[in-house]
Design a protein that fits this description.
Strand content: under 5%
Order of helices and strands: HHHHHHHHHH
Structural class: mainly alpha
Oligomer: single chain
Shape: globular
Length: 199
């Protein structure tokens, strides 16, 4: 994956960063922790301007999150609840989970959206309950953009600071990411097995 991301960032520049960050929020297995530091590495090599890398990454992140938010807002909690009741166990989600997420977002909307952009997995998933809870669009887009911009800038800065050391770090991170993915798959299978026993 590192070679593929490196090639897109190197060949397409800011447009590639934008595309990858949009995809990262639609298909989380492509991590921003890999994309943006590689963009920072490209900045350090003089192949991209720092401001262009950061803005492209933040815009791609916002677009990906907007897709989930608008989809969830269009579907609405009322239509989703019967599906969750029937099939939620396949995804580890219950009606109670939806209620808690919506209540937390209504209570701490801006803070949750802002901080959620910097937490793995939560970064993308928080857009769905935000849409279901019908968080006002102005609140959603403002705080999503600010949190995403800060996160993207930090990752880009890390890649820039590491420069040529980044590829050495990435060489360790990629195998580790497969281990994490395998653990997540095992946990999901365990959850299915337990839910079938209790269902």
């Amino acid at each position: 994956m590192i070679e593929w991301v490196t090639r897109i960032v190197g060949d397409a520049g800011p447009a590639g960063v934008f595309l990858l960050m949009a995809l990262e929020n639609l298909f989380p297995p492509i991590p921003s922790e890999l994309i943006m530091p590689l963009a920072g590495f490209a900045v350090a090599e003089g192949r991209m301007a720092l401001w262009a890398a950061v803005l492209a990454g933040a815009a791609g992140s916002l677009l990906g999150n907007a897709a989930w938010y608008e989809l969830a807002r269009a579907i609405g909690a009322a239509r989703l609840r019967p599906l969750v009741a029937r099939h939620g166990r396949w995804f580890g989600v219950s009606g109670e989970d939806m209620d808690r997420a919506e209540a937390a977002l209504r209570r701490h909307g801006p803070v949750a959206l802002f901080l959620g952009r910097m937490l793995p997995a939560i970064r993308t998933l928080i857009s769905i309950p935000a849409g279901l809870a019908r968080i006002p669009r102005g609140v959603f887009y403002l705080w999503t953009a600010l949190g995403g911009l800060l996160w993207v800038a930090a990752l880009t800065g890390a890649g820039y600071a590491l420069r040529d050391q980044y590829l050495k770090v990435a060489g360790v991170l990629e195998p580790a990411s497969y281990v994490v993915l395998a653990v997540l798959v095992l946990l999901y299978l365990r959850h299915l097995w337990r839910s079938r026993r209790t269902g």
